[in-house]
């Protein structure tokens, strides 16, 4: 995977924050974000792209893979802060 594609996937994933997009829309948004990363355009996700993402995004099903991963990541963050509290 090219670094620009990885960056675009990461940016879109961060913006989605656990929500999911239909595959075709997700791929289109990632491709647009990747092109903007390569061009150095800022912001990478412009207002139109964010509006399209928000219009197409849905919450993941309660027990989806995404929700389980998000819960595990939250728990991991909690566990990492325990030594600091001691």
Give your account of this protein's structure.
The protein has 86 residues and is mainly α. Helix 1 packs across helix 2.
Could you provide a short overview of the structure?
The protein is mainly α.
What value does the Rg take, in angstroms? 15 Å
SS elements, strand count: 0
Structural class: mainly alpha
Distance between the termini: 41 Å
**Averaged pLDDT, please?**
88
Helical fraction = over 70%
SSE string, helices as H and strands as E: HHHH
Shape descriptor reads: globular
Major sheet description: none
Number of helices: 4
> Which residues sit in consecutive blocks of at least 5 with pLDDT less than 50?
none
- Beta-strand portion reads under 5%
Secondary-structure blueprint of this entry?
Layout: H1 3-16, H2 23-39, H3 47-56, H4 65-85
Helix pairs in contact: 1-2
């Amino acid at each position: 995977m090219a670094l620009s594609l990885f960056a675009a996937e990461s940016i879109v994933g961060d913006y989605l924050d656990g929500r999911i997009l239909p595959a075709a829309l997700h791929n289109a948004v990632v491709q647009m974000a990747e092109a903007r990363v390569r061009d150095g355009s800022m912001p990478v996700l412009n207002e139109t792209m964010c509006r399209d993402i928000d219009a197409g995004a849905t919450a993941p099903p309660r027990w989806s893979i995404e929700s389980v991963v998000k819960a595990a990541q939250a728990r991991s963050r909690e566990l990492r802060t325990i030594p600091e509290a001691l």
